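Hey, quick one: can you model this chain's 3D structure?
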Amino acid sequence: MPDTTAALNEKLDRLIAALERMAPPPPQAPDFASSECFVWDAAATALAPVPVVNRVEIGLIRGVDRVRDILLDNTRRFADRLPANNVLLWGARGMGKSSLVKAAHATIMAETGTSLKLIEIHREDIDALPRLMHMLKPSQSRFIVFCDDLSFDQDDTSYKSLKAALDGGVEGRPDNVIFYATSNRRHLLPRDMIENERSTAINPSEAVEEKVSLSDRFGLWLGFHKCSQDEYLQMVEGYVGHYGLEIDPEELRRDCLEWATTRGSRSGRVAWQYVNDLAGRLGKRLEPAG
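Sure thing. Here's the predicted structure for all 290 residues.
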């Protein structure tokens, strides 16, 4: 009997050792000094540093002066450890919502000299947001957690994880974390989804309230609307001047308006696409003039 017990214990020890070798290594504490921007990898429970951030200077984002100033002020207060709000930037496509978030981060970081980090979380990883918050809480740095193009579809329940993370549950949202999101939808949910809830629920008002209450977790709603022709021209001229592209002003006006007409819209994105095309035709690289 003792020999049987010893053999069984030996097998159990080998099994435990094998399972330990198969288990993934514990997540390493992130090195926040390695970068100013990170991307959240939910599968690995890790933050991947971004060596070069894809962004434009805040002065090149035109036609959104009011919301720009509000976002800068909110970000500045957060960096200074003062009360600040979660922000939802919603509205027209291509009007610089995500560009403004990245530019505001760079501007305030340079202005205040604080350890302000930008962390991007992908839409499909929203249910892992509480884990990310837990990882960031002990750090002395300040964090803007940013989700681009956030929205939820029918039967998608991950919005509940976002609601819980924004409210913070029992512990509360960490003082060193704020959440910025962009969306084409004001309430983050498609209108037909809200209307369906209203028409089929036993208590329509409560069902709709559950869905749209997510956007109420954002203290600031910043709306982006389609730009006018003059604003579109200002965007193009700003890019052309910044990159030192030489072209006759009247030709530029005709050319960029025709470009917008063929695409059926005017926006910051369309202006940037035009300037890329123009620079290519002129044989110029998009590098700041001077």
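One thing worth noting: The mean pLDDT is 84.
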